[in-house]
Amino acid sequence: QVQLVESGGGLVQTGESLRLSCVGSGATFSNYVTGWFSQAPGKEREFVARINWSSGGTKYADSVKGRFTISTDNAKSTMALQMDSLKPEDTATYYCNAENKYTGANYWGQGTQVTVSS
Questions:
Q1: Is 90 left (phi over 0), alpha (psi -120 to 50) or beta?
Q2: How confident is the model at residue 18 (pLDDT cuts 50, 70, 90)?
Q3: What number is the average pLDDT over the span 89-103?
Q4: Distance of alpha carbon 3 from its chain centroid, rounded?
């Protein structure tokens, strides 16, 4: 059973930084594309960033390009999201996601809250 556990959320002020982590277990993550999604109150869950564990290829939402950086530590089965220059509109619950490239099986973490005050 694949499990994803996020950590690192919190309350910060505009312009500050946070680093989110997602620790995975129960899978060979080189077979996965993993990423981060955010969901603000009353809104749909939306894509933030993703990374291919085997190729290292990344993709970002336009709203976070140049501010957020996604990375992996393959040895520790950990994915991180470095969030710099945070804005109030980044306030949301952030979810870790893993999708198997071959089966399409999709897994979510429980989420971590990020709040950016103005």
A1: alpha
A2: very high
A3: 95
A4: 14
